[in-house]
Amino acid sequence: MNSISVLHINLFQSGKTSSDFYFNTLKNHLVTSHKHIEKPHRHDFYVTVIFTKGKGIHEIDFQKYEVSEGSIFFLSPGQVHSWELSEETDGYIFFHSQEYYDLYYVNQKLRNFPFFSSSSSYKKLQLESEELKGVISLFDKIEKEYHSQYIMKNNSILSLITQLYIGSTRQFSKDENIIVTPTSLSYFKHYQDFESLLEHHFTTEKSIAYYASLLKISPKHLNRITQTVVRKTASEIIAERVILEAKRMLIYLDESLVDIAFKLGYEEYSYFVRVFRKNTGMTPTQFINKYKS
Length: 293
Fold this sequence. Notes:
- 49% of the residues lie in helices and 17% in strands.
- The chain has helices spanning 26-32, 34-37, 98-102, 129-146, 153-175, 182-201, 208-215, 219-229, 234-252, 257-263, 269-280, 284-292; strands at residues 5-7, 21-25, 41-43, 46-53, 56-60, 63-67, 71-75, 80-85, 90-96, 124-126.
- The strands form two sheets. The chain has a five-stranded mixed beta sheet, with no helix packed on it. A five-stranded antiparallel beta sheet has the order 2-9-4-7-10.
- A hairpin with a 2-residue loop joins strand 5 (56-60) and strand 6 (63-67).
């Protein structure tokens, strides 16, 4: 098993004084950064990429997505991805850190956007022609600001990318037929807090009661919240987060299966195998063999 590389923004920032924001056309990015992105990798920053031309497959955390004109993808720090794209592929790509976003939106955590949350399946939007025109216009404005020396340049960029994030959140809600009410907004805030806690504690704490206690609500109410927001139980979300990390470690870490189980909070390897098989339908060894075949 091979260790997976973690890419940092400064790898892509030759000649730039700031290393917190990067923008490029997709065609140029694929040419200039090929040596960094040709294999599966993860980032320590947030990525947004839109395809205006080309076809292919984009794999994000073992889930394969079809790429075509109008496909827009969102990736969070730590996610593993790779792609196989046709030669004529083009579009736009930008990425930035949470610290860069904090320059203007200090109280807005990026993981609060549904497509940047750790357990979200909302990683791709497929835009129709009219929607695509509007989004491309935003990318064009971001590109213009990125290459400018205007006063308050970063403020303008942050405002534009936030417009994109808000519009994409609304589109995801529309596609999923989510009806926004005062109750659902309250539930969504609690769900964000649950996800944040889970991200910090999933290797050591796996009970609903633990997270409900930190949120000062009952386990029953936490389940009601998660089922309303993402149509899953809290236990399912906890298990999915653990299994996702297990898959990443099984494929990309050069460590024994016993050590991986221990790092995920399982002192007994046999119990880890049972949990993994229950959630994936196969043992860790079978998963490795299937993914690498």
